[in-house]
Amino acid sequence: MMRKPVDTGDPDRLYTVTGGRSRADESFDLVTLIVSESGPVPGMQSEHARILELCRHPTAVVEIAAELGLPVMVVRILLGDLLDTGRITARHPRAAPSVASLPDSALLQEVLHGLRNL
């Protein structure tokens, strides 16, 4: 079974959407949660307005890209614009605690034993 090539969109459209920029804001990864801090305003670029509408509730960068049908790199450029103007905030998911910071299994066994004895 052959895999279909990834559609990166019409290059002319993408150039127009990003204003010719090709450098994305590095602070956005695929799982960064984006939240709108304001609604769209008249005259705003349609992609910016759509992002603000999508992100009324925390939405991951990868979900925004999928909804807009745009490559993640282009979405990251657009998000950088909105972040610079204070129209969105970015929330990075908390990293999972390291294994070293978890309680020792012997301690957990003792707690379990104590609970069973209650």
UniProtKB/TrEMBL annotation:
Entry-linked InterPro entries: DUF742
Pfam families referenced in this protein's UniProt entry, alphabetically: DUF742
Highest taxon above the source species: Bacteria
Cited PANTHER family: DUF742 DOMAIN-CONTAINING PROTEIN
Name of the protein in its database record: DUF742 domain-containing protein
